[in-house]
Amino acid sequence: MVQFKDLNQLQRYLERGDIVSTVFKDKGIESVLAKTMSQAVYDVVYGRYIPVEYKRRRNNGGLGDVRNMKITKVEIKNGKVQVLFENLTLGQAHFSPIYEQPVDSMQGHFITDMINDGIDENWYRTGKWSEARPFIQETISRIEANPSYLIEAIKSSYRKIGFEVR
User: Fold this and answer.
1) How would you classify the pairing of strands 69-77 and 80-87?
2) Spatial distance between the Cα atoms of 99 and 105, rounded to a whole number of angstroms
């Protein structure tokens, strides 16, 4: 087993290999992030109002569905691991009509930015549903407030590939 004398030696080892990418392919890490985001969606997005103009998909392909949440990129820059975790939910296709229109204005397009940031031009009409509902920042805040689940998932992933982690 490889041992390291200091953090700089460990960092050089990690940057040289594909270890970080292997660690973050572990579904345990993605699961912690997805569960946190899903709960943030339920609280910040779904908790804001009850729609009458359309039917929410929730955990059935909707914004709160953890199956739509993925780690899409992992890289090391300036000695820091950067992880891109995205909600890849697409606009509705099977719950039409919506807002008396034949199809969802975002059908086949990613809806995360539109809902998180409240991008009015992507809606047929504006209203409570088109206001920003910043679930991404809420997800980050929740992880920062209680990082223990994520830290344990990362440690577990390193252990799976043979590291001794304390």
Assistant:
1) antiparallel
2) 10
Q: Please enumerate in sequence order all residues whose Cβ is within 8 A of that of 80, keeping only pairs 6 or more positions apart, or say none.
A: none
Q: Per residue of the chain (166 residues), what is the pLDDT tens digit?
A: 677 888 888 777 877 657 888 888 899 999 999 999 999 999 999 999 888 777 788 999 999 999 999 999 988 888 788 999 999 998 876 655 555 655 555 666 788 998 999 877 777 677 787 899 999 999 999 999 999 999 999 999 989 988 888 8
Tally of CA atoms within 13 A in the half-sphere of 21 that contains its CB = 8
Contacts of 67 by beta carbon, 8 Å cutoff, 6+ apart: 61
